[in-house]
């Protein structure tokens, strides 16, 4: 699982053709607007990649790591610079480069069935390791493997270890099979931080961990997390001032990646929240590729990541029909703050353990169902949609069961589409669009009393699930 940390491709004062940039699909018109928060995020990202490009000459150490269960504050306390391969992969997808990178990896012997993030990353590496802003990425001084629920993470870093021959440190995070975090699980993670992860970072950077500095980072994380939760909860308004899935992936960029714990992240989330609050006051919806979306006919909850190669096309299919995502699980992959978790500066290592243990990829199917049920009810959703991605076995397995169980519990009908993360070969535009329209028509018929409110069959969209 992963997330985006780039701002939408937008013009100044007039529309632009997005097909020339992020999408491998057909050209679409992107709306015009640049919120101050978007501009800030764009500057933050450019800055980060600038720092990465000169990291070696500046004497900065670089850690490659994954989004779920990331230890950004700890890296920040050591002034290490994070690189997140999943984010590089999804950005390659949005920029129309992932197809060629995947082919490169497949030519090198990686099977079609391997997670497309991995192949995209390997293909990018073999093609010069040029990052999303066009600057070359530094090689890692450390591969920091937070192992949270996905076996592919381990194999991915085995491959990178073979390429870079740098140290790997693994933080083994016990899976929440029973939906709970026991004191033993928590202590097990804390012990590894003390015995493996921190000593390895101290050795690489030549610095001792400064716990006060770590606590300051955690306090700033908490402030950003408070603001983000208010942004999520704003979707309970009608009209919703945000799109909690397509728009939401932009909102999670800073907090799930290199910026949590920084002053920049606090400033970004406080600015974003102020913009959202302004839209609530004026009754304005969010900006979408189809324009400002205030006329919202269908409120949906979405499970699963988006297709990055056809991101705007996929979003357009929803916004053109008046469907808005009021909540999504994908935007909680890097932290379930809306369920109460906050980083705690009073307990620096314990809070890092809680964060890693609680991330969405580390949760069992029953607890994912509970969460989706909660979202459907608390955001008053008319329906829910699962985008099941071919690449991600660890996430997609069981999603049809999730769909049926949710229909049973809530009486709300679900839809199921299939695509992929960054492999453009797995996006069937016409098929998904036709079926999505049928699903929304079915919701409309239910609303008008023409279909029974419960007991309807799930609408399965896309190729055979
Ligand atoms: S299999 Fe899924 S969770 Fe694992 S790395 Fe790939 S996309 Fe992420």
How would you describe the overall organization of this protein?
By secondary structure, this protein is an alpha/beta fold. It has one domain. 46% of the residues lie in helices and 11% in strands. The chain is built from 18 helices and 13 strands. It is globular. The N terminus is likely disordered. Bound molecules: iron/sulfur cluster.
Question: What labels describe this entry?
Answer:
alpha/beta; 46% helix; 13 strands; globular; disordered N terminus; binds iron/sulfur cluster; 18 helices; 465 residues
Q: How widely separated are the two ends?
A: 20 Å
Specify Rg, calculated over alpha carbons. Answer: 21 Å
Number of helices: 18
* Relative strand content: 5-15%
Name the poorly predicted regions.
1-32
Total domains, how many?
1
The level of helicity is 40-55%
On the 0-100 scale, what is the average pLDDT? 90
- Largest sheet data: 5 strands, parallel
Number of strands: 13
Biggest sheet: strands side by side, in what order?
A: 10-9-11-12-13
Write the layout of secondary structure elements.
Blueprint: E1 16-17, E2 29-30, H1 36-53, H2 55-58, E3 62-65, H3 72-77, E4 81-83, H4 85-94, H5 98-107, H6 116-126, E5 142-147, H7 151-164, E6 168-172, H8 183-205, H9 211-233, H10 248-251, H11 253-256, H12 263-282, E7 287-288, E8 291-292, E9 298-303, H13 311-319, E10 323-328, H14 348-358, H15 365-378, E11 383-389, H16 393-396, H17 399-410, E12 414-419, H18 429-447, E13 459-460
Parallel strand pairs: 3-4, 3-5, 5-6, 9-10, 9-11, 11-12, 12-13
Antiparallel strand pairs: 1-2, 7-8
Helix pairs in contact: 1-12, 4-6, 5-6, 8-14, 9-12, 13-18, 15-17
Bound molecules: iron/sulfur cluster.
